[in-house]
């Protein structure tokens, strides 16, 4: 168990440059009948909620396969479902109410960002970065996925 923790910690601490894999998965076997599934993803790819959804889905599929049962349908729907839900929300009065609330309660960009004071020479890691040139091949592949998944209306 200690070795599995050491390996997971080592993988988690290793730099994850944008030019390399942005996901790390490992199955760490600690005994004949015990294993731990390790997932580490770059924050640019997924947030805490998303990783929870993915791990829940992996567990559901694994449990079904281990029990010899049918794999259950995904509880979070398809990408098309998400797009339909977002479009309906943006057309709703809830959206307008939420927009009014956040507009009132978050200062515009020209005002203070309410961050902690820092030393003059200290770099602010949250400053905007320069533009990034995306690989045209990757952009074309993303557009192809968009069409295949029925999301052609997105830009």
TrEMBL record:
Task: Give the protein name, as stated in the record.
Answer: Condensation domain protein
| All copies of domain Condensation, residue ranges | 14-107
Annotated organism of origin: Mycobacterium xenopi 4042
Stretch forming the signal peptide: none
Q: Which domain of life is it from?
A: Bacteria
One family name in Pfam for this protein: Condensation
GO BP annotations of the record are: lipid biosynthetic process
Q: Which GO terms describe its molecular function?
A: catalytic activity
